[in-house]
Specification:
Helices cover 33% and strands 18% of the residues. The chain is built from 13 helices and 17 strands. The structure holds flavin mononucleotide.
Length: 402
């Protein structure tokens, strides 16, 4: 990111998850209730483990706000882990005598950070690695993303998401594109009362729930896919000028950085490999009603040449099944070399509804950064004025601008 900087800290069972978001303009009204709402959304989803019943994530601001508005200084925040007292000894910050130290975890889970991390950090206790690799750290991303989302909303951008696939079950299986079948009131409904798996197709969701139940029964886990949509993005965020200024590249990296995401597509994504140009590209039109640039389709997912093109930005992500299995896979003890079964940690079975909320946050952070990079501004007012100017010049062809 070029203008915003996010640094996060915190172990899964440590005292807190904390962070600093730097680069926000002054004068942005930040609603604590909306931040807590996104933290709550990150905790929701059928197939989540018991940890989510323990935690009640709420933000504690530590810097950067006065009377509810940003000061332009770094925004500091913290979310306390309510589970911490149960882990105070096992995760002791201070040294402990050997007899009080917990038994080290030595059987790495295939698919998790355990083995590579234990070798990298030269530890014989996998907990030293898994505590930070755990997706508990996404609390900080969702929190910062909730602030970025408010900056975007103040500039006419709205972000939402849904679960498109869980294992073999797809939302709207008869539709060529599931996004086109999502009801218009879905984003508002999802904010009010999210459905169990945050899937907008109720028939598919029933089958998805049955899949999760079957996995729970079998001691297994299951993967899937989610879609994040950003509406109202002004034209020209990102640039074609350099490889690391492309908006699609930044969105892909940020989405791929979410634990367990293994593939990211913009618009049609992987499907374009099997299509002809005439089936892929979105014809340009001058809308009869609006008199502005329009496209009847959006297979590009709102980005051409590394820049937003004014259509909705569509990011798809494939999520692998989580690696902690209640019927564990084979592993080898990292200390003795003896074969055994992988360590079992309290775990989710399916994470798509929650990963999608992290996806919203990452898309919000990248778009907020791209907005500030393109339009600058020490204050929200400066930024809004520049965004309005851009919107004014992209609604109509230049010849009609008098
Ligand atoms: C919201 C969310 C919740 C997750 N919950 C679990 C979990 O309960 N158990 C687990 O083994 N992995 C879980 N993961 C995935 C692991 O964090 C991830 O697989 C691990 O850190 C290794 O990274 P990698 O899958 O990207 O290689 C979760 C991921 C996300 C995004």
């Amino acid at each position: 990111m070029r203008r915003l900087r996010l640094l996060t800290a915190g172990e899964s069972h440590g005292p807190a998850i904390s962070g600093v978001l730097e680069g926000l303009p002054a004068g942005l009204r930040v609603s604590t209730a909306l931040v807590d709402r996104d933290l709550r959304r990150r905790q929701h989803g059928y197939g989540s483990g018991r940890r989510m019943l323990i935690e009640r994530d709420r933000v504690v601001w530590t810097a950067g706000l006065r009377f509810g508005r940003t000061l332009g200084s770094p925004l500091g925040f913290r979310v306390d882990n309510l589970d911490w007292p149960n882990w105070a000894e096992r995760m002791s910050v201070e040294p402990l005598p050997d007899e009080r130290r917990p038994k080290p975890i030595t059987l790495a889970r295939p698919g998790h950070a355990d083995l590579a991390g234990a070798i990298k950090y030269d530890t014989d206790d996998v907990r030293d690695v898994l505590e930070r690799a755990s997706a508990r750290s996404t609390v900080a991303r969702v929190l910062a993303g909730a602030v970025a989302r408010q900056l975007l909303a103040a500039n006419g951008v709205r972000i939402w998401s849904y679960v498109e696939q869980l294992g073999p079950v797809r939302a709207f299986p008869d539709a060529a594109d599931s996004l086109a079948a999502v009801p218009a009131d879905w984003p508002a409904r999802d904010l009010r009362v999210p459905s169990p798996l945050r899937c907008p197709d109720p028939d598919a969701e029933r089958l998805m729930i049955a899949e999760v139940d079957a996995c729970a029964e079998a001691g297994d886990s299951i993967g899937g896919a989610f879609v994040v949509v950003a509406e109202g993005v002004p034209v020209g965020l990102g640039s074609a000028a350099e490889w690391d200024t492309r908006l699609d590249a930044a969105l892909a990296a940020a989405t791929m950085s979410i634990q367990a995401v293994k593939a990211v597509g913009i618009g049609e994504g992987f499907a374009v490999a099997g299509m002809r140009g005439s089936e892929v590209h979105d014809e340009v039109d001058l809308g009869a009603a609006s008199g502005g640039w329009e496209r009847a389709s959006n297979r590009a997912g709102g980005i051409e040449g590394g820049m937003s093109n004014g259509m909705s930005i569509v990011v798809r992500a494939a999520v692998k099944p989580v690696s902690t299995l209640r019927k564990p896979l084979g592993s080898v003890d990292i200390v003795t070399g003896a074969p055994g079964k992988a360590h079992i940690e309290r775990t989710d079975i399916a994470i798509m509804p929650r990963a999608a909320i992290v996806g919203e946050a990452m898309v919000a952070l990248v778009l907020a950064d791209a907005l500030l990079t393109s339009f600058g501004g020490d204050t929200l007012g400066d930024l809004q004025a520049a965004v309005r100017r851009r919107r004014g010049r992209t609604g109509r062809p230049a010849s009609s601008l008098g």
